[in-house]
Amino acid sequence: MQTKSSFGLARIVPAIVLLLLAVVPFAASYLEQPFYLTFFGRIIIYAIAATALNLALGYGGLVSLGHSLFMGLGSYSVAIAAFHEVDSGLAHLAITIVVCALVGLVTGAISLRTSGIAFIMITLAFAQMGYFVFVSLKQYGGDDGITIASTSKLAGLDLGNTMTVYVVAFTVLLALLLWMARLRISPFGMVLRGARENARRINAVGLPSKRYQLLAYVMSSVLCGIAGVLLANLNAFASPSTMSWMISGELIVMVVLGGLGSVFGPLLGVLAFLGIEEVLKAYTEHWMAVFGPLIVMVALMGKAGIIGVLEKFDGRRKRGAATATAATAAQPVAQAKESAA
Question: pTM for the whole thing?
Answer without folding.
Answer: 0.90
